[in-house]
Each structure stands twice: as structure tokens, then as C-alpha cells.
């Protein structure tokens, strides 16, 4: 049994691309699969790091990253299992997962950056979040 792929071959270049237009549900499904792959990769890396580390305590940023990855994976898993009976709740959980995946991304990239760059990145993240809330409100 083969798993469905999220990439599509481009006839002109032959390189995989994610769908960005067309049916919104298929696009959300494609992004959900990418995020699941990211979560599995991150959790594997975290487990390896934990096993190799002699320190028993990690920086709090790592704990926030771990929490975000956990929320992403559990939201997507639950949304896939309840989508037949509760499609609205499943779609909401997928959107929550995408938000937390973006947050995990920001946590990962700003971990080793100077304070001024962290402030800029988190300002961008906050503005994006507010824009999403505002656009979905109307």
C-alpha cells in the first residue's frame, strides 16, 4: 500500500510543487500533510536530541517548541479522525494546527537570533495572526 503524495509534478520543470490555487479543501489537505511530515520529523529530532543530551533541562524556548509541535500533531490527528461526523470542527482544528506550525517555525528560527531580530520576527507573526483573525471575522 502506498501513501498518497502531496507533491504534484510540474510538466515543464519536473519539480514537485504544492498546489496553491483551486479547491481550498484540497490545498488545506496538502498543507496538512506537509505539516504532519514536519511534526514527525521534528519529534524524531527532539527524541534524538533528548537521548544524546547529558543535560536534563532544556531552555524554555525548546519547551514551547515541543508544545507547539504536540498541538499541531494532535490537532491534525483529531481533525482527520472526526472529519466525517464533525466537518466544521475538523476544519477549525486544521486551521489551529497550521497556526501552531507557523508558531513552531518562528520559535525554531528565532532561537539563536539576536533580540532585535526576534522582536521583528515575532512582530511579523503577531501582525499575521491579527490579519488572519480580522479576515476570518467578516
From TrEMBL:
Taxonomic superkingdom: Eukaryota
Record field: transmembrane: 30-51, 63-83, 92-109
Keywords assigned: Membrane, Transmembrane, Transmembrane helix
Region Disordered: start-end pairs: 1-20
PANTHER family from the UniProt entry: IMAP FAMILY MEMBER 1, PUTATIVE-RELATED (PTHR34741), VESICLE TRANSPORT PROTEIN (PTHR34741:SF2)
The protein, known as: Uncharacterized protein
Organism: Cephalotus follicularis
